[in-house]
Amino acid sequence: MTQNPDPPALLLQHHLKALRLPVFLREHPKTASQCAQDRADYATFLLRLAELELLERERKATERRIKAARFPASKSLDEFDFPAVAKLNKSLVLELARCEWIQRRENVILIGNPGTGKTHLSIALGLAACRRGHAVRFFTAAGLVNALVEARGEKALLRLQSQLAKIPLLIVDELGYVPFSKTGAELLFELLSQRYECGSVIVTSNLPFEEWTGVLGSERLTGALLDRLTHRVQILMIEGDSYRLAQSKRRRSRTPAQEHPA
Ligand code: ADP
Ligand code: MG
């Protein structure tokens, strides 16, 4: 007598694993009974499972992109208090969150005083890009320059440069707090020049453009950098003082009765 073949359930389990369809594997009994209830046909059953698998795949890919971006915190546009920065064009920010500018390889520059939400907005736009399927990498300007300087003179620099060139959105946060060495400024310039019309950058700075020379050290380099960076750019000027400071002042000026309404 020949041995019984594997029961179909076991074979199905094996095949779905081999095909890397974990959601099919997990969900097919439940979806089958739902489809039986709804008197849905075989194609609908298959479609429902395929949709679930696809959704799960997209969710995981987004999660991986967010992790790879190395954001310093998680910030969303929903949490952003737009009325607090009345002059900021909210509809422009919401449009930027749709990420069409990344497909056009344009740039965004955010300029404003410390604490006015530049990092918050750059993270929120970066997260939006991850959700739309774009790879993103967040750096502080000092961190990026350090990484470039450290990699200099070795194959590591070429490797880093080509890694970053593949990323559609690079965020360079806090340009202006620390002046760069000559080499650092040149490497940053080289990197941003390589990206020109090949990829997008968000740069945030507490300094108006006129003062960027103080950070980059050379007027000629600053001019050339701004020329490339601002060719196709949306510049968001955030006026006013620190949001946190304003919040804590507001809290302190509240009377206890207001703070704990009956
Ligand atoms: P910047 O990068 O301009 O120095 P941040 O983005 O780091 O400022 O903002 C400082 C803190 O204040 C962060 O926790 C940020 O989430 C918060 N913040 C700033 N502006 C706003 C705003 N308009 N709405 C909500 N939170 C804000
Ligand atoms: Mg910041």
Textual characterization of the structure:
The protein is built from 13 helices and 5 strands. The chain is an alpha/beta fold and 262 residues long. The longest helix is centred in the first third of the chain and has 28 residues, at 42-69. The radius of gyration is 25 Å and the shape is globular. The termini are far apart. Residues 118-119, 173-174 line the site of magnesium ion (MG).
Shape: globular
Average pLDDT rating: 92
Number of helical segments?
13
Structural category: alpha/beta
Report the radius of gyration as a whole number of Å: 25 Å
From the N-terminal CA to the C-terminal CA, the straight-line distance is 84 Å
Please report which band the strand proportion falls in: under 5%, 5-15%, 15-25%, 25-35%, 35-45% or over 45%: 5-15%
Bound small-molecule species: adenosine-5'-diphosphate, magnesium ion
Q: Helical amount among residues, as a percent range?
A: 55-70%
Please, what is the oligomeric state? single chain
What does the largest sheet look like? Answer: 5 strands, parallel
Q: Spans with pLDDT under 50 lasting ≥5 residues? A: none
Number of strands: 5
Order of helices and strands: HHHHHEHEHHEHEHHEHH
Strand order of the main beta sheet, please? Answer: 2-3-4-1-5
Short key terms for the protein model shown above:
single chain, 262 residues, alpha/beta, five-stranded parallel sheet, binds adenosine-5'-diphosphate
